[in-house]
Structure formats: structure tokens, C-alpha cells
Amino acid sequence: MTAAGTGVLDRLKQRPPAGPPTATRRRRVTAIAVVAVFAALPFAGLTVPWVLPGPVDVLNSTGTLDVLGLGFVFAAVALGYDVLFGFTGLLSFGQVLYFAFGAYGLDITLSAWNWPLLPAVLATLAAGLVLALALGATSLRGRGIAFAMVTLAFAQAGYYLIEDNPHNLTGGDTGLVMSTSRLPAMLVGVASTRNLYWLALAFLVVVYGVVWLATRSRAGAVWLAIRENERRAEVLGFRPLPFKLASFTVSSLIATAAGMVYLLLVGTAAPDSVASTTVTVSILVMVVLGGAGTRWGAVAGAMVYVYLQQYLLKVAAQPSFATWPAAFRVPLSQPDFLLGVIFVLFILFVPGGLSGLSGLSGLSGLSGLSAVKGLSAVNGLRRLRELARRIARTTTGRSRKGTR
Amino acid sequence: MTADRSPAVQAIGLHASIGGSHVLQGIDLSVPAGGVTALLGRNGVGKTTTLRSLIGLVPPAGTVRVLGHDVAGWPTHRIIRLGVGYVPEDREVFSRLTVRDNLRLAETGPGANYERVYELFPELGQRSRQLAGTLSGGQQQMLAIGRVLLVDRRVLLVDEPTKGLSPKFVSEVVEVLDRVRETTTVLMVEQNVHVVRRLARQVVVLDHGQVVHTGQAAELEDEDLVRRLLGVSA
Amino acid sequence: MSTFIAITISGLALGAVYFLVASGLSLIYGLMDVLNFAHGVFLTLGAYAGWAVAAHLPQQNGALFLVTAAAATAAGALVATVTELLLIRPLYGNPVGQILVTIGLDLALVGLLLGGFGANSRSIQVPGWLTGVTDAGPERIPNGDFVALGTGLAVLGALTWFLGRTRYGIIIRAGAENRDMVRALGVDVGRAFTLVFAVGGAAAGLAGLLNSVVFNSGLVDPMQGDQMLIFAFIVVVIGGLGSIFGAAIAAVLVSLVQEYVTFYAGGGSGLAQLGNISVVLVLAIVLLARPRGLLGRTA
Q1: Residue A229 with chain B: CB contacts under 8 Å
Q2: What is the ipTM of this complex?
Q3: pLDDT in tens, C210-220
Q4: pLDDT per residue over C222-237, tens digit each?
Q5: CATH of the domain at A142
Q6: Which of B92, B97, B108 is facing C186, going by the closest CB pair?
Q7: Do C173 and B95 touch (CB under 8 A)?
Q8: Is residue C298 situated within a structural domain?
Q9: Which option is the CATH number for B9-83+153-230: 3.80.30.20, 3.40.50.2300, 3.40.190.10, 3.40.50.300?
Q10: Of A228, A402, A404, the CB nearest to B81
Q11: Judging by beta carbons within 10 Å of its beta carbon (0-12, 13-18, 19+), is residue A139 exposed, middle or buried?
Q12: Where residue A372 falls among pLDDT bands split at 50, 70, 90?
């Protein structure tokens, strides 16, 4: 690595998080407080009307805890994806493959082969690692769009393979129900909801820690350099490929692990919930919604997404829903519509996502990836004004074209 | 010498960045109407970027006036339609279109004059159905210049028109520019000092993204000045 | 042997539909560097428009089917144009953002269709002869195959003429090579962008109708566009982003691989999706051997 390269790395690493040390401490305290609140939630038997996503309006009901647990799992996946997309700037459509691999891998080892839990987990992780390295090295031979398309292709191939139910392993369309015979009692049965909830929360915290360490390490600085301008990173003396592969592998491994936790939580692995392009799109939406490249943005985006989705499903399932006027009923009966609209609005007007809105993005000044260009709400407002002006111009005709 | 006509092209405090690199750091430039102004400087000082930001291919910060209009922030095609022609460095002809289609593309102003182009560059007429990518370097340069002369232009921005050309083509290009400058203001980036001396009236010298010298082309007879400003011997 | 011919014709017909979808995608990417994930929903909306119009027409015959086809084409063109003006333009200079916004649009519109129509299919009213078959020796070829094939060839011809002979065709081809230089000649590339989206959307809408009528027994459902989109992408990437002719060749390649593998190998191994998996593998192989695709434009 050249001297200039080392200098760039140092400069990137020393870039302070937004604000003076007291702000950092405040953020750290907030983070711990939030985790503590969530950890304590299963003990809170409060009745909270309207807002909760589960069928029962009690804070620590099974429904609420299940949804939150799901949110934690997807937050972890989103975090992993943020490493690849937000920090390294690699648009990939294939992380869902590893999520599915984790879910199905654990499912098959537990249910079809009857392994105990720990070996099953370790084996799935190891196999996932090998898969990630192999496919990652292959996919990364392409740049940009070619890379994105290859990842999409592999993920689709995975989906088809699962649907095909080779050797009756995957259960095909209907999915594979997890056999609980080898699981510790803690994770099975009526009382398991709380334990699984805490497992998911703990998992998210661990993943967050790993991602935090990785992105703040030397490798993380190189990822940012690659994101900004891969050619320039090369000129400065880094060989991008090993770093890209590392980013890809970290992201995929997190997805694999999350897939396993998902299976424990939900109990079934089905192609449409863990392997389809729908999931890919969801992850993308979560990360962009929350703000790519900011870590906690991915978490926030995922929690908001899962919450909205489950809440809308609950609303649509209510008996009174059928009596709503069609103008409300049709758009709201499918969470996808609302989520899609919010996604589009965010891309157009709030490119920095939720974290950009709150002004706490820690990456002010690094604007390599176009999607995170202008990490502030100010940019979004300017775009809004521009759009209004453009609409006004097209509706009032081309009278101003060509004249001074 | 006072100009009793306002300059055809003017830049005041022009800044521009490319890929994070702050290339233009406050250019103040005034191109008088009529005649040829040469833009000189060593490699990498921002000559091409200056031309490109005048027409908005690189987003300019600061003031840019073309033919009396404030054009900073205008879309490129709108600036061009004021009567500006641009001949880029490296020609940039469309290699998968025929010569004729390359010319057709430039038909955006009033009165496309194909005869004028074919008269200036007879070879283009002979090869009109040939794919531009198969032309020689010199022929591509003819095409690059020919297409901007298809319609009447009031300003021509020309970037190193003689770069990489054999002497035969160099003199052809010089002849064409010589004829054109009678009716059109030309701002020309050129490394070939002989060409500059032959065509230019005024010279502007750039260094590190700023103007360091403005003067008459005749001054370039002074070899010391040339060496000092451009680091080359004339 | 005659079965082989029947499968081949069926494959070619499917390839024609793929080509219709892929040609628009290829043009859009070639000129604008935008991967339009909303293309699938243009297709679906075209099919629904065809269904809606056909439902109001009296008993179908050939001429009225043309009306249905025109409606599908127009619907696709309209949605595509609005998409370009409202969503793509504001994000100029932000190619990743443009890709993402098309994904969002796809998500929202499919959601809306699912909400409005449910996941169940609707049936398009078509002329009787379209669902019939023609005897060709020992085999019976569905008439729909001929219609699809004919349409594909006609559109290929029309696009080739458009790109080669018209002013906007020249602008689009030049723009795919060097957008900035086109601007520097005084041409408003933005209009070409909108045009290219409109043309792509029109072809997609028509493809949606044909897909429903010929390959789906006249059924229309909200998910059909997205299911086809994957294959269209594969076709575009294999053929080379930006090349119409490449898209045509790749479309035929992909569809034939799908048909042959499914028929000859799929049944035996119990892997119904083998045809699809093979296509995906072909994509991976082509991309890794030749990242630009078969006839892709240079960098």
C-alpha cells in the first residue's frame, strides 16, 4: 500500500462521528437505554390501544413479541446488507440466498437429519461461509450492473431449487416445518415466546457490535474508499477485490445466521418468505428507508418496515375492514403498496433516509454512493422544490424554452 | 485596448470539480467577440475543464456569460442552441453511426448547410456512408469539426484540434479555422505554439486551475515568456 | 421429430414475447443507464388494460382484437412515460437512486393491483381462432404461437427501422454511445429518454397481453409481469445491454433452452424448475466469461 493510501485511510478513520465527544456519549447512552427498554418489554403487561401490531392490545403479548422478534431478525439482515451496500457501495440482489440458506440449512439438519442444535448451527454457518466465499468470488468478477445481475441470478436459482424440492429435502412450495425434538426446552413450547424474543434481541445486539467493529476497522475505511471511487482506491494502493469479498462474506454470514434465528422464531421455512425477490426488495427498502451507510439507520428502517407491514396486515384482517370505502380499502389491504409509495417518496425527497432526517448521520462529507448522496433533509427539500418547479413548467407549456 | 463590444464569452470566478478534485479554482476569462483566443497551459491545469464548464458539461460554480446570457446552471443543449459549437479533445464522433448520420445529428440550428461542410472537407462527402469508427484519426477530426460547422455558430469552443494529426491534416484544420474566424468567435485550447501564433489574437494562460497570464498572441515570439509559462521551448 | 418442431415453435414464440420485453429494457439501459425494475408492471398493466377493453367489446374477432392489443400497447406506453417524467427525471445523475425508485414503483403498483384485483386471475376475452390450433403435419401448433412470433418479428423490424432511419433513432443510438456529446451538439437528450421509456413501455404492454393470451390461457394476474421480468433481465444481460439484435438472439436462446431442458430433462429428474435453473446458469456463465454480454456495447 502506498504512503498516500495509508494517509487516506487515516483521514477516513479519523473523521469524527457527527459532533463532539459528549454527543458520542449521549448516543451510546441512548443506545444502551433502548436495548434495555426492549429487553424489559416482556415484563410490561400494559394495555396500549390502537398502536400494537399484534392481535392483542397488550404490550407484552405473544403477538407483539413475535413481531418485534421478527423485526430484530430483519434488522440484523439489514445491517449485514448495509455493510455491503451502504458502506462498500455494492448493489447486490442476492443476500436473500444466504438468509434462505441459513433457514433451510438449520431446518434440514434439525428436522431431516435429526442433529442436535449446536452442531446443526455450526454446520450451517460453516457451509454458509463456504457458499458465500465461492459465490462471492464468482459474482465479484463482474462490476456494477453485471455483479448485481449475477447475484440476482444466483438468488433466483436458489429459489427455484428450493421450489423443486430435490430429494424431498426442502418441502417445496409449502415449506418445511422445523422439528423441535432436538431443541432445548427453553426454545420450545408456550413459554418460548419470551426466550425467543430475547434470543433475537441478543442476536441483533451481537450483530450490531460485529458490524460496528468491522466498519470502524481498517477494512471498514477501505470499504468506504471503495464506495467513494474504486479506481482511486486502486491507485492509492489497495487491491479492492479481497476487501469486497470480505464485505460480501460478512454480509452473507450475518444473513445466514439471521436465517437460522428466523427459523427458530417462526418455525417454518417457506420459499416465499425466505427466498423470494420479495424478501430482497424488503431488505433494500429497509436499508434505504433507514438510511444507507449509517448502521442504526438499517436497524430503524427494518423495525419500521416490519412494524408497518404487520400493522397493516392486522388492520386488513379486522372484520370491519371490509366495510371501508374502496378508496381506502384497496390501497391499504396490501402493505406493499404503502411501503412502495413510502420508499419512492423517500428516494425522491429524503435520500438520507430516517437517519438523514434526524441529522445524526455519522458520514457527513463522504458522498460516494449516489443513493446516499446528500445525506440530509435539506437536499430532499431542494429536490421537492425542483420537482414542483418542473411540474409547473410542463403544465404551463414550453413558453419559456429557448428565450432568455 | 478597449472593447466596444461586450465579450462573446465571459467567466467570472469560475470553479469546477471533477470527481472530488477541485480543478478550476476561480477562472476569470473574457473572450472578445470575433477572432481566435487561445487557451494555453501545461497538461492537467484545467483547460479542457474550462471549456466543458462553459457549456455545462461540468457543473460550473460562479458566473458564466455566453453571448450576453447568464448560462451557469443551464442544461448543455440550451447553451449550445444560443449558437455555440463544441469540438472536444479526442473528437468524440459516434463510431457506430455513419458519417452522414453523425452530421445529421448536428442539425439543430437554422439552415443546415451540408454543401459548406462538404466543400470544406471533401473527404466527408466521399465517405458519407462509412461508419465513423472506421475513419482515420484525421478524418474523424474533420468530422468533428465539420459537424459543428453544419449550422451557423457565433462561438466555437475547440479543444486541441491538431492533437495527434499528421502535418497534412494539421494544415487543413488550420486553414478551416482561419476561414471560420472571420465570422465566428473562437476559443481554442491548443498545445501547438505554431498554430497558436498563426491563428490567435489573444492568449490566456492557465496554471493550477487559474488564469496566470492574459495577453496578445504576438508576445509568444518571446521564447523566454513561452518557456516560463508553458515549460516548453517554442 | 415432430414434437421437436412443435417445441421449437413454441419456444420461438415465447422468445418473441421475451424479446418484446427485453427490447425496451435494453433500449432504456443502453441510453439511460437505468435498470428499469418497473418494466414488469408495465407488462402487467398492459395485460389488464387489454382485459378491461376486451370486456367492453362485443364478440371478439380479429379486428377487435387489434383494438385490444392497441389498448394494451397504449397503456404500457402511458405508464412508462409518466414514470420517466415523474420518477426518473428528478433523479438524473443518481443511477442507483433511479434503479431503486423503479423497484419501489414496482412494489407499490403490484401491491395496488393485488389490493384491487386480488391474487386471482381474470380472463381476457379473445377471438376463437386465437385459441385454436393449426394442423402442421402430425403436430398441432397453437395459433397463438404464430401470432406471438409474427408480432415479435414485426416489432423487431419496426425497431430496427426506427433506430436506423429516424432522427430520434439516431439520437438514441448516439446517446447510448456518448450522451454528453449529443447534448454538446444541441440535442435535448431528455426527450429521447422519455421516448425510449414510452417505446419500451409500449412493447412491454403488448408483451403482457400476448403473454396472457398465448401462454397463460387468457389469464391476467398481478404477478405475471414480475415473473417474466427475471427472464427479460437475463435476456438483456446475455444479449448485451443496449443491443436490440443481441436481445433478439438472446431471447431465442433463453426460451429454447427453457423449453428443451424442461421437456427433455425436467420430467425425468423430477426437477420441474430445471429449465429455469439452466437459464440462470447460462446467465452466470455468459456474464463471467463476457461481462458485456454477447453483443453488448463497449464499456
Answers
A1: 19-20
A2: 0.90
A3: 999 888 888 88
A4: 888 888 888 888 888 8
A5: 1.10.3470
A6: B108
A7: no
A8: no
A9: 3.40.50.300
A10: A402
A11: buried
A12: very low
